[in-house]
Amino acid sequence: MENIGALAILLAFCFAVYAVLGSLIGKWASRPLLVVSAERAVYCIWALLTTAAGILIYSLIHGDFRLAYVWEHSNRSMPAIYKFASWWGGQEGSLLFWSWLLASYSSVVVFKNRRKFRDMMPYVTAILMATQTFFLILIAFVAKPFNVWQEGRLIVDLRDGNGLNPLLQYWTMVIHPPMLYLGYVGFVVPFAFAMGSLITKQPGEAWIKTTRRWTLVTWMFQTTGILLGAGWAYAVLGWGGYWGWDPVENASLLPWITATAFLHSVMMQEKKGMMKIWNVVLVSTTFFLCIFGTFLTRSGVVNSVHAFAQSSIGTYFVAFLAIGIAATVYLILSRLDFLKSESQLESVLSRESSFLFNNLILLASCFAVLWGTLFPVISEAVTGEKISVDAPFFNRVQIPIAMFLMLLTGVGPLIAWRKSSVESLKRAFLWPMTGGVTVAVALAALGVRNGYALVSFMLCTFVTVTVLLEFYKGASAIRSKTGSSLLISMVELTHRNTPRYGGYLVHMGIVLMFVGFTGKAFDKDTTVELTPGSTIQLGQYELHTFPVETAQNENYGSMSLPVEVFKNGHDLGTLVPEHRVYIASKQPTSEVAIRRRLNEDLYLNFAGMSADNQRAVLQAYVFPLVSWIWIGYWVVLIGTLVCLTPAKSRLVWPRTQVVEIADKHAKVDH
Amino acid sequence: MNNYLKFGLLIVAIVGTLVWLAAGGISETKTYYKTIAEVNQMNRDSVDKRIRVGGDVAPNSIVREGREVRFTLAQDQLRLNVVYSGIDPLPDTFKDGAQALADGKLGPDGVFRATKIQAKCASKYEAKPTMAKPAA
Lengths: 670, 136
Hints:
Chain A has helices at residues 2-28, 32-62, 68-73, 80-85, 91-113, 121-142, 171-186, 188-200, 204-236, 247-272, 276-299, 313-334, 351-383, 391-414, 422-445, 451-482, 486-496, 498-518, 627-644, 655-669; strands spanning 148-151, 154-155, 387-388, 524-530, 535-538, 541-545, 549-552, 556-560, 563-567, 570-575, 578-582, 588-591, 593-595, 600-609, 616-624.
């Protein structure tokens, strides 16, 4: 079995090399059949990698502990879903997963576009397959998923495996890695299109449309992945945080930031033919940051809680990055003429300029995160002393950046293209500013003294009012024409221009997330060692504990501490935080109990027994507004889906298609 | 040209502010990686430096006293007494024999005051059979 898997990977590698050479030579020598055969090779790679992945999953689920990978990441007592998730639980398997996803994406791209962009497609295929080749080199020759245990010449079958890291045995961890990977891998596609159009000197408009949709879908996966990770950290790690500026978290954020910048600046290219070089640079940066992120996670360059085992894999990544970046830079420089801007910036007070600053700020944010992440490496190289920076550094830089971005989010829709007069701005800003200031003053009067929180709530209100006004103005116009209700008019309005109003919805979601982040300023916490049966106080909450209960199953043993919660004398029911020790890995984990409400979460963590085993250690937190982060995510998701829905507006359709439809109707009439 | 000047000034102002914030952030929060040997040799005037020190948690050295946790970090024969009084709970992986990283400052009495602890499980892969590739 494992031989078939290894063989499939090896064959996939050969096919990938063939696909690169076939499409390039076919293109240069004008041999269309060779190009088609390269496209078929893409489908073959998918089939081969699906076979290899299938074998690995089968071995994981059936517990074939002759395989080193299965032994290290699975065991008999784990539920089947986690056995399946072990596919991406370790270095080798997750690289196989990466390759498989890339093969799936490539197949879809090739299938959907094979007739559309005849000129460009061979290059797109070649770039996709070059990346594929790189990852197949890794799993075929360096980090092989089908290694077996062997003593001398004898294959050893071990009785039971090590098990997946217990911290990862949680439902979001089953979806979090696939989502992030769908994001990471997906950014290869816009990059391939950008490069393809550069090589063939295609006019920008065609590829930009395809790429924008891909980027949006990928961006959605990436957002989902990041938020699932945050949700997992919050619910599992027991310290109540959702973001720790860990290098690996940063690695997933970096391409997300540049992709966000691209999604904004691409509008400048679509509408005004500006920022063409910039867009190509952003697409390429996003792609290389994805590869870089994968490299950071796996090479052991930086210390991280997420880190995979240290391995020699890093040098391969460095080589791939170096070659890729050099080629991209050369290509962009040699095509500068073709990327000339069609119009110029006319005024500081214009929509164009707000996009420009939006991009500047996002890039600055990206750079700051990168700098902070690599600081230990840089400082060691320069001064010889290893120095790291921590969360306070990131917060200090990112909070003002985030506030400024928030401001721009509100300003953008209010400001006209080309040039805005100060008069019209005064009119446009009147209500949003009034709203924001009112909220800030009201909160200050209620006793909120945290400066950042006040500014943040003010900006959140500012943006909310602008977005609501946009919907209201548009919907009122429709209502006065059609006479339908305001709600129906809003739906109609959104349907007419989905990218615009979907975008506003995404902004609304981000605002809600910011409300959640701002709640961090008001956290309360306490840690106590208590004799079960006693009562403690936290803010308005009174926590009454009961004796510890113990339980055991084949996967883990557990102790739980029931806590009855009272708020201002009202009984709110019982929360049961639990402390587990997993049998296979002997690793303890905490199952926190959270009472989630819109205004605040009550978060209880049973950290185990005191040294003398007489008292329980209980950590209790109150986290205000955290739920809004997750609500905000759902709004972002819905907004993105709206963006992806084709607009009803007829202007979008090219004339030829309308004629075709008319023809069809004519035929039916006959 | 006037227009470009305006843009230039705005961009310089924004980037300047961020660089200033970042520089301040780094000098305030930077942490030096030190070994136990280096920490033991440090003189008393470097007590204000933020330090990250790593080692193994000496067996049976973990003592909880209310919100404080005392333990000893060990590296070969060297020892460093640590007292942790941070607000975050200790990680689940923090136990006897685990590899731990302590962030904090050295106290004047030579006891390390940690405000943050990270821990990794002691490696349990030591006695594994030699690996070989499948005979494909």
